Amino acid sequence: MVMQSQPLFRFRLLLMGACTAAVLTACSPEAPSGSEPGMSPAASAAASIGASVLPATPTPAPFRYPLTGLGSETEMTTRPYMVMVENAPQARPQSGLQQADLVFEILAEGEITRFVSVFQSQPVEIIGPVRSIRPYFVELGEMLDAVIVHAGWSQDAMNLLQSHKLNHLDQVYGDHAFYWRATDRKAPHNLYTSTAKIAEGAETRKFRKEWKQKGLLFAAQGVSPTAAASGTNPASRVKIPYIRGYVVSYDYDADKEYYLRSMDGEPHADKETGGQLHTRNLLVLEAKHAVLDKEGRRSVNVTGPGKGTLIQEGRALSVTWQQKDGMLRVYAGSTEIPLLPGNTWVQVVPEGTVVQME
Questions:
Q1: 19 found inside a domain
Q2: What sign has the CA pseudo-torsion 10, 12, 15, 16?
Q3: What percent of the chain shows pLDDT beyond 90?
Q4: Residue 228's pLDDT band (boundaries 50, 70, 90)?
Q5: Mean of pLDDT values over 141-158
Q6: Gyration radius from the chain CA atoms
Q7: Domain range for residue 126?
């Protein structure tokens, strides 16, 4: 066998490769105009198609949760749960308030406040500490068509529950299976429940499941109700004086677009997560209060009408409020003002209370 020299062999290989490339190029279809040099026709076509495709717009959820206005893939038709949550110093920090769709803070005995926490849009594993109920709290539960959850009552509250035949779970008298006592706190500040326990209780007691109420009014995503309104005032910081030990303040976080809640100058935290409580909407409602007896029990008008302030996105708008069509509504003049999608805290204060805003 005759061996070829190494340089001559390499030259012939290069010559064969060049001829093959020329033949393939002659047989290929002409590249589309505008294609990048060195791109195959298929790659060029794909690039051309890709250049004309815009980013997909997220499809809006077909439904909205009635008490938050946030999107939902399914329609919410089941009743909310209204849980009485204690606010004595021994009960802080509480559990579950951040996951509530709606929270009312209202004076109970003397100058002690109590929370009416309303749950509908999500399951919550720990809610409490749970305490007793008063007549005006019962009225809110009836307005919301909620399953009312409490531990004890005043006689007037029980009379109202019974005469109006309202669905309620009372830990003190017969419904203790749907609550538990925590071991890290002393009674009576250690009673808790969950949405699963409440659902179990409602099923056991054969309560009606279907919700008969309408939801709150919410703005469309990206729409700011107070920005469009005239006569707003700055409200990056809000201070609500109930009494020493119950001075509530809110500070607006513009980056996160919500108000951070504090009590007596300290962040009001969730016991389970340690995170500071916050809200998208803050309503301060003036209501008529009256002391009924020497124990300091009160009556509070929670149906309105009355004066109030709607606070959103660092702005405050003077409003009027009332229960209308079975739900809380706020108005500027004759126009109903919607809430921002998200949770809402409602501070009910005696008429004439001076709320500081800056």
A1: no
A2: negative
A3: 75
A4: confident
A5: 96
A6: 31
A7: 63-357
133 inside domain: yes
The residue behind tokens 């009576």 is 188
- pLDDT category at 41 given cuts 50, 70, 90 is low
pTM of this prediction? 0.84
Instruction: Give the burial class of 128: count Cβ atoms within 10 A of its Cβ; 0-12 exposed, 13-18 middle, 19 or more buried.
Output: buried
- At position 10, the amino acid (one-letter code) is R
CATH number of the CATH domain containing 76: 3.50.90.10
Tokens of 314: 């660092």
SS (H, E, C) 98-154: HHCCEEEEEECCCCCEEEEEEECCCCCCCEECECCECHHHHHHHHHHCCEEEECCEC
Residue type, 207: F
Place 55 in a pLDDT band, splitting at 50, 70 and 90: low
In a domain, 51, yes or no: no
Q: How many CB atoms lie within 10 A of CB 178?
A: 20
* Number of neighbours of residue 66 by Cβ within 10 angstroms: 22
pLDDT band of residue 54 (cuts 50, 70, 90) is low
Please state the length of the chain: 358
Tokens of 325: 């069509």
Number of domains in the chain: 1
* CA–CA dist 9, 298 (Å, integer): 106
Q: Is residue 189 part of a domain?
A: yes
64 and 218 Cβ atoms separated by less than 8 Å: yes
Residue 19 CA, distance from chain mean position: 71
What three-state secondary structure class fits 197? Answer: helix
